Amino acid sequence: MLPALHDPQDRPALRFGVGDASLALTYPQLAGAAGALASALHGRRRVAVHATPTLHTAVGITAALLAGVTAVPLNPKLGERELGHVLADAAPELVLAAPGVELPGPLASVPRHDVDLAASAPVPGDEPPAGEPALVIYTSGTTGPPKGAVLSRGAVASNLDALADAWAWTGEDHLVHALPLFHVHGLVLGVIGPLRRGGSLHHIGMLDARTLSEAGASMVFGVPTQYHRLADQLEADPAAGEAIGRARLLVSGSAALTAVDHARLHRATGLAVRERYGLTETLILTAARAEDEPEPGAVGRPLRGTEVRLAPLAGEQADGLGSVEVRGPGLFDGYLNRPDATAAARTPDGWFVTGDIGRWTESGALALVGRSATDLIKSGGYKIGAGEIENALLEHSGVAEVAVIGVPDDDLGERIVAFVVPAGPPPAERDLVDHVARLLAPHKRPREVRFTDALPRNDMGKVVKARLPR
């Protein structure tokens, strides 16, 4: 899983923080600290990790992988009810944490083991079987209690290797990001990814223009909210944009990056952002390759070994849209303790149903229009993707942010409603409606525009449309 730790070279591995407050480990130091913790974990079945964005979390996850123990990263912002559910479901034998950190109440019943960065012991020599579970990562729980997706060691390794192929990712790359460490993007891609390649990671805490420009990144990972704020900063700091532009790859994921922000970042840095697409249950499915010209609004082609199909949408006209279904080596083994939910997520012929709606572009890339539960609007006999309307509205100079939903309508079935955060004084509603009607088919225009100060978001910065008033 992590070959660079079995013959560690004296080179940087991990750094968290900036300036005098940062903590860092070389590969020999990481091998020693993770080896010592792996020895302490030997014989355990499953351990929780209090997944703060710290070096201690990265060492804890690394040690669990070396020991062949399943790690359960815990979002440190979980409420007591959510955390209690996860602990009852996963039943970890230990919780790994940074020394001195106060753990939330429900963790009091779990034995604690502090991560010692200065410890040293040999790395275990035996590699556990690829079919053994590496991680149990819990979903966000937007449609019920969080479910634990069981990801095998083989799934993680094969997915990271396919991404290395797509992005020409090597041990010479220096990855910089500021993502949380309790999910696939920040943890699997952002920590295990560089360690599997033998490269380095610098977690800078916040994707700030000045800090990023001084980090010397060859690769940057971020989410659209971070890139949107970065683009704002770079408009006033062209020198930072020039420095960031020396990276070879900016990668965005977890939600769609707007065409407007694509253009702003390209102007500021000279780099075209690559998007990728995946879920907790599937790891990464598609990605814009390093050698390809990215298409704003598309998330690239399927990774090596991964199959993606668009299942027909029954009923109304769908304008080329389909339900995204996938299969491949990166798929999860199932939901922990939930065989019913596991079975419900797969088709009879073994494809995983993502719940997303997409279409193929002319180049063979996948473009997503949203989730079937919240972003597929059935209006006037058509099935309409909310994402397409959102991107159109974001091209209007008076729109800073937007979320589009369908609300019940006696005549249309659902009518299209746009929640708009204005960029300055709110523009006229008619102006926004006509703007969309000029860019898209008339049946896709909003029937109503509601102005708001902010959109509801989760910890990842994704808009939570379920919280919008209907």
From TrEMBL:
InterPro entries: AMP-bd_C (IPR025110), AMP-bd_C_sf (IPR045851), AMP-binding_CS (IPR020845), AMP-dep_synth/lig_dom (IPR000873), ANL_N_sf (IPR042099). Pfam families: AMP-binding, AMP-binding_C. This is AMP-binding protein. Belongs to the ATP-dependent AMP-binding enzyme family. It comes from the Bacteria. NCBIfam families: PRK07787.1 (NF005858). Residues 8-336 form the AMP-dependent synthetase/ligase domain. Residues 388-462 form the AMP-binding enzyme C-terminal domain.
